[in-house]
Specification:
One of its GO terms (molecular function) is oxidoreductase activity. By secondary structure, the protein is α/β, with parallel strands linked by helices. The protein contains 13 helices and nine strands.
Length: about 290
């Protein structure tokens, strides 16, 4: 049994922490909104802490699943002063590679391991314990964290040193942006041509056009329903991080930049909390 702390109980963190408890670990949780931490503790017979430091005190491993770089930095840097040497800090937040390297350095100075471990799979993946986790950090530290992360994962990959997990997640989001835009245009074209979209998808989904987005989102996209996954405002945060990294490393991301602007239009339409397949809505608007 591992003594674990989980900081951040959003739509991802709440079920992830639940899987840790169900796997037999001792879990203490913290959330900025204390009522959510209490609700988790009541549901899972765990412990709600009033501060991150209280949750992390004496823990073998501390998990974070927060919002953006400033949120992570504000919680993690003071927290390191209260973690015991030999423990591990795992950040599941999708954040910048620069921050991951900064936290790795700060943790190492105190004899604490650090793993940047952004996840893919969305709310459903978190609830079902079927997340894909992309990790960066020292191999020995990763080896400590991996068995515990198995509680909510279907796949865990060590991608390289600190920051590599975040860089891999950027690749994931770059690919999704292009895929969902292509699918949107394909469905929009089929609609405009008067084709039966179900028949079209049945035909093309058996060939090279097949994708997870096609299999899982074509029907709701055709129906104009967008309450089924990762929100536009979160995707824009992730694409911003990827585009900033690209400017630093010289990568050219013209399609990603364009799709980011399409999502900005969706936000202006009132869709910041719609799922990412809603990029089709800008094509179908009157």
């Amino acid at each position: 049994m591992t003594i674990a702390a989980f900081l951040g109980l959003g739509v991802m963190g709440f079920p992830m922490a639940g899987h840790l408890k169900a796997a037999g670990h001792e879990v203490r949780v913290w959330n900025r909104t204390g009522a959510k931490a209490k609700a988790w503790a009541d549901q899972h017979a765990g412990v709600a802490a009033s501060t991150p430091e209280e949750a992390a005190s004496g823990a073998d491993i501390v998990f974070m699943c927060l919002g953006d770089d400033p949120d992570v930095r504000a919680v993690a840097l003071p927290l390191l002063e209260h973690m015991k040497p030999g423990s591990v800090l795992v950040d599941h937040t999708t954040a910048s590679a620069k921050l991951a390297r900064e936290l790795h350095e700060a943790a190492s100075a105190r004899g604490i391991g650090f793993v940047d471990a952004p996840v893919s799979g969305g709310q459903a993946g978190a609830e079902n314990g079927q997340l894909s986790i992309m990790c960066g950090g020292d191999k020995d530290t990763f080896a400590k964290a991996e068995p515990v992360m198995q509680s909510y994962a279907k796949a865990i990959v060590h991608a390289g040193p600190a920051g590599a997990g975040q860089l891999t997640k950027m690749v994931n989001q770059i690919c999704i942006a292009g895929l969902v835009q292509g699918l949107s245009e394909g469905i929009h074209f089929a609609q405009a041509a008067g084709l039966d979209v179900e028949t079209v998808i049945s035909a093309v989904s058996k060939g090279a056009a097949q994708s997870w987005q096609m299999e899982n989102r074509w029907q709701t996209m055709d129906q104009g329903k967008f309450d089924f996954g990762f929100a536009v405002e979160w995707m824009r945060k992730d694409l911003r991080i990827a585009l900033e990294e690209a400017r630093a490393n010289g990568a050219k991301l013209p399609v990603t930049a364009l799709v980011d602007q399409f999502y900005a239009e969706v936000e202006a339409m009132g869709g910041k909390r719609w799922d990412t397949s809603s990029v089709i809505a800008r094509l179908n608007r009157e």
